[in-house]
Amino acid sequence: MSILTVKNLTKRFDGLVANQDISFDVAKGSITAVIGPNGAGKTTFFNMVTGVYKPTEGSIMMEGQSLVGLKPHTISRKGIARTFQNIRLFGSISVLENVMVGLHNHLKGSLLGIMLSLPSSKREETFAQEEAYRILEYVGLAEFLNDEAQSLSYGAQRRLEIARALATKPKILLLDEPAAGMNPRETKELTDLIFKMREELDLTIILIEHDMKLVMEISEHIIVLDHGEKIAEGNPEEIRHNPKVIEAYLGTGAASTAS
Amino acid sequence: MLAEILHTLPQVLIDGLALGAIYAIVALGYTMVYGILELINFAHGEIFMTGAFIGTAILITLTGLGWIAVMPALLALLLVLVITSVLTGFIGMGIERIAYRPLRKAPKLITLITAIGVSFLLQDLVRFITEVKRGNYILTGPSMFTDRVEVKTSSVLSVFNDASFKESFIIVFVVAAIMMITLDFFINKTKWGTAMRAVAQDRDTSALMGVNVNKVIGLVFFLGSALGGATGVLFAIQYGTIDPYIGFILGLKAFTAAVLGGIGNIRGAMFGGILLGVLEMFASANLTLMTNGVFGAEYKDVFAFAILILVLLFKPEGIFGKVVMEKV
Amino acid sequence: MKKYIDLMKSYTDKVKDNKLAQGILLGTYILVTTLSLYLSGKSVIAFLLLLASLLLLHFTKLGRNTKWGIAALVLVVLLPLSASQGDAYQSYMEVGTLVGIYVAMALGLNIVVGLAGLLDLGFVAFFAVGAYTYSIFATPQAANFLSFGTFPLGGEYFWVFILIGGFVAAIFGILLGIPVLRVKGDYLAIVTLGFGEIIRIVFNNLDRPINITNGAMGLSSITPPKLFGLTFTFPSQFYYIALVILVLTIFVVRRLEYSKIGRAWKAVRENDIAAQSMGIHLVRTKLTAFAIGASFSGMMGVVFAAKQTFVDPTSFTLLESITILVMVLLGGMGSVPGVILGAAIMTILNMQVLTELTNWLNQLSLNNVISIPDALSPAKMQRFIFGAILILFALYRPQGLIPAKNPIFNAAKLKNGSTPKGQEKQKQEVSLKKESASYVNLDS
Ligand SMILES: Nc1ncnc2c1ncn2[C@@H]1O[C@H](COP(=O)(O)OP(=O)(O)O)[C@@H](O)[C@H]1O
Ligand SMILES: [Mg+2]
User: What are the record's GO terms for cellular component (chain A) (predicted)?
Assistant: First the structure.
């Protein structure tokens, strides 16, 4: 069953076509990878799904509802969360608070209740702290709870972005180059985390990634973009042997990884 | 009512053009800096004001030396314009170097705060230098180009009244036009202009392509401030009396003009400036009439501000601007 | 020598950790300064030193309630009592009241600038709105455009008007914020700058066609507040009003700061795109900050108008807005203790130090010791001084005198989970985790 369906999705910036007539389905509970060379339009696709950019043409449907034209915060409430290619943490607040921001829409406290310091808002605040801490434990960052987000290592920052996204309790999680800049050990831990999240949290995961080993290992379905167009789609095995893909993106390096 | 508005229209247009030309050039300074750094350079209004004071000071000195009497007025003006614009150009560059450049990676808020600080500092510096020298911070320069020229607009259309202007109006308008055309040429046709446009579009990539970004930014500040300073001189000649606080409201309106034309857009700023000047003069002449005396000319500053709000509400990208999206 | 230094060091270390020692030292300090103010009757130095005890108090390790208790003792009892002996009593209390007013305003601006990261350069406009809201109804002015009711209203209404003033200011904040905050954050600076001027121009001219504000003449003989038959006329009385509102303000700001709203503000400040992706409604969040900040300013405007019994547009200039901005930046953006300190310093600098310095320099000039041109007298140099503070702090100490601190959470407490919901979830989580561990192991 598909949870996300895009049809004829196109995005133009002035003259430049960043996404051209893209259509595909994402199966519920799957891990789908979007790959392609730099500038292929992968991030643009994420930006349209999350409401950061408005599509020029085409439709994006989540469980039968259109997402086109919705604001990012509304889309977040519908259950789509994301991380960013160029890390966008709330740098100068603490790690725990970063995750607590993700809980924003799951806290009901009203302005007045907070100002008057009603018991219910106090309780809710405590709950938020505990919940955020639990999520930090889940991604393995609990020990850094009081550190400033910007003081974390690169790999830890990427994990924190994931933790923050999880806090919104998404149905679909979009990861934009989550392994970029990670060393092999961190990449391995990330791979484990992605599996774990999918299994335990009832998530559909779509990720953009350049690390082919990770992509092939982790994803059930792969979509290949090049110059804004979808040039191939299929399971890792099919993609590995697709001549178009090899030519456009994987090049000779792919053959050696494959063998 | 329409007839009455038409009576005064020629005069309104003339006055509006003079004011608009001044807004336009000051707006250029805002728009260039914004285009390249995305910074509202609050100090730009004060550069304009400083230019007015430097120019007036030079004119007063020249008069004191008796040079003005023997020199052709136009030559004196040219001399003053050149000296003033070079000086204010360097002041602008200096401000960028000292106050903005160290903060280029800092949050925007901090840079805006520094800009406000610079603006206040300049106001007070000019105030106390003038006050120490002359005992009063309100300055009146020697009168130049004050002969009035009559325009028989009534012969064009009978509903028009005749209009008139001071000779200085021609000076303001011609000098402003020359400055704008030169700048437009410089930006669109020269190597440095190309570099400026490149940096405005993508600073990092330009740097990779071998453009010296710091130099280009310095140049932008120099040009903007030189033009702003020269405009200050024109203002002083056209309106006679200046004080250290003239730059503030005028800067605000010039920024409005820049937003009106589409921020970052050079020709837009020119157009926005002229348009705002004419609209403002129109409002100050006819507001009383049009609102049956409810609002008078004293609301002309409010009027300019209302335009800013309306533009932001309905066409935030301005008349010539295009919608830009932050890359995510 | 080294031994001596070590000894000193060990002493200071001890004091650093020892609550009792800190308490005793602070107590002594407060006692001495109180006594010297009490005995000298009129000593700016003693007055300032006594106020400084609150700063020391902030840095002690004493418990939170103890700190509040001591602060209350100093501000409610000791300061007014010891100042009451000299003939400068009212002028000290005037300074105290103004410090209270400005601290509350600075705390309001701190929400906008410090927490939400929006630069508001016309903050004083909201102060003006509050001040005029009360003044119009507490003078015969309102009768010019209202056909019902009798004006001026009695002093009992003052208390309601504190809320009304805050509310009206908040409405203005929202009306101004909607067009701007929707578009681009940095336009806000220039629009608010314009708005500050516009409000002044409008108040200056709103004596026709209907006389609402009495134009440049201003409104005078504003009804003073009244409570249980007691009329507030002296600064020593307003001091307590300002103090109460200030304490409430601090309480509210603290609550907001560490709530989901405060976090949303900080998130928007740090990265608005990420904040939106976390489900935060950008415009609403910014507007909330803007409106709450404005309402603080509006409330204090009401107090200000009642205290002065006179308002006119000249009290609400750009310089005032910038002064409040300087307070926030100087103290530390986003830092409540910092902003309190910044506001106190700037108010005292403005009210006392600059004027005293000017008088002193004038004295020197009179006695021909030195001659400072009038143009350079410190009281006239506000713009220069404020501009310099803004530039220097932005460049070299953007975090201010007392930088903002993130709250520290106790991991052990969070782990155990006090709320039932949390516990339940956690258990579930643990069991899930075990399963998944085996899954991953099998796979690899
Ligand atoms: N906001 C924008 N304005 C203009 N061009 C953009 C914008 N965002 C992306 N692009 C362009 O769209 C193309 C695709 O970019 P992107 O989606 O980031 O690629 P990828 O993530 O696959 O590397 C690039 O050429 C990029 O420059
Ligand atoms: Mg990308």
Answer: plasma membrane
